Amino acid sequence: QCPCVPDRSSKGFVSGTGEKNWTEAQKYCREYHTDLASVRNQSENEQIQSIITDKQAWIGLHRLWVWSDNSTAAFTHWKPGERSIRTNRNSICTSIVISDEGRWTDEDCTHQHPFVCYDGE
Length: 121
What we know:
Elements: E1 11-15, H1 22-32, E2 35-36, H2 42-51, E3 56-62, E4 66-67, E5 92-97, E6 103-108, E7 116-120
Antiparallel strand pairs: 1-7, 2-7, 3-4, 3-5, 5-6
C-alpha cells in the first residue's frame, strides 16, 4: 500500500461487522463509512463479491429500487425471477448472492445478513 492520493471518483468497499437487518446495516455504514454499497457496474459487483465471506450480503438497493444514498439504479444484476413486485414493497431490500454469480435477490428488510458499505463518492 502506498501513501497515494485516493482516486475520489472510485469507491472503496468494506465488509460490515456482524449480521444486521437492512436498516441497522444502513445506520452502521453511515456512521462508520459513507453508506451501504451502491453498485454502478459489473466491476463494482465483482469487487463486492470478492470481499463477502458469507453466501449473501445486503447492498443498498431498497424499496422503490433506489440506492441508500438516493442515487438511481442504472446498473442491476437480478437473479432470474427476482425483483418481483410484492404487495408490501416498502419492506423489500436487496442482497447479493455469492454462490449465484453475484446475482441480486429481493429479501425482507428485517432479515439478518452480513452487509457491505462503501467509502468515497
